[in-house]
Amino acid sequence: MTNAKEGEQGRVQGYAARVLENVARVLVGKEDVTRLALAGVLAGGHLLLEDAPGTGKTMLARALAASLGLGFRRVQFTPDLLPGDVTGVSVYRPATGEFEFVPGPIFTGLLLADEINRATPKTQSALLEAMGEGQVTESGVTHVLPQPFVVIATQNPIEHEGTYRLPEAQLDRFLLKLSVGYPTLEEEVRMLARLQGAHPIDTLGPVAGPADLLAARAAVQAVRVSDDLRRYMAALSARTRSHAQVALGGGPRASLALQGVAQALAALAGRGFVLPDDVKAAAPGVLAHRLTLRIEARLAGTRPEEVVADVLRQEPVPADPAAGGRLPGEHVPAGAAL
């Protein structure tokens, strides 16, 4: 059984390596954020990319969709966008005398909700049921979305005029919030050379298919998590709730997200078990956007990421697995060699 699980994790590692290498043909120097984004997809979650214009948010979404072999649709969110423009509408057909449901762009493999904070709360909430339940309801009829289904939303942290801040309930639906960031000088020079001619995104093909993603997700769910690490993750979420600078911290959904992303990172590394370093790597992207800081902390310029870093420093870390692959907190049978 153990050998079978190790084989599954090896296949996930190989699958992920192909995807990451393919995306790197388009995005220069963004291996870390691409790895976290892929971990979020493998964990079955949705992503929020927040960064300045022109940093590659849209390109990351397009490259992931192409590499994973998923259908891709992009919706530019604007104040006049209606919920039906995203989910679909029922159209009356005079020939039959009946209403027919016309699916919206949300019926795809990967939906890019570009500048989601420019749409009204009513339209933003149209994504809520789809992201949480994998379905949309129109005129009292439920329509199931195809699987796998991923939402990658983007927003600009600089311009706030004419925008509608995402409510905490909807932010909590995003498994990860990531920042692509600016390239270094050398990375930007390489990017200019690579993109001098035709853009590689136009010819980027799939290295896997939807069935491969579903199989990889199943393998990620089988990655072992010790009792000590589960306690560690729950303690991290609890510590955000009791932190002096936090008015509203991470809840149980944050702990579940932390576990899922840590499992995915372990699988990407070819391991069948989670290490504390996996949890630490997942924590900023999982926890920061779920924190509401106190007014005095915001006035002092404190960022949620700084609070997460403080929480990671404060919480004692479980020991790494012992030699031989035993996990922290794992039961040792009587008479077993230590």
Automatic annotation (TrEMBL):
Family annotation (SMART domains): AAA
Region (Disordered) residue spans: 318-338
Highest taxon in the source lineage: Bacteria
One GO MF term attached to the UniProt entry: ATP hydrolysis activity
Keywords, ordered alphabetically: ATP-binding, Nucleotide-binding
Residue ranges annotated for the AAA+ ATPase domain, each copy included: 43-184
Any Pfam family matching the protein: AAA_3
Cited InterPro entries: AAA+_ATPase, ATPase_AAA-3, CbbQ/NirQ/NorQ/GpvN, ChlI/MoxR_AAA_lid, P-loop_NTPase
Bilayer-crossing regions: none
CDD domains according to UniProt: AAA
Family: Belongs to the MoxR family.
UniProt name for this protein: Methanol dehydrogenase regulatory protein
Protein source organism: Deinococcus phoenicis
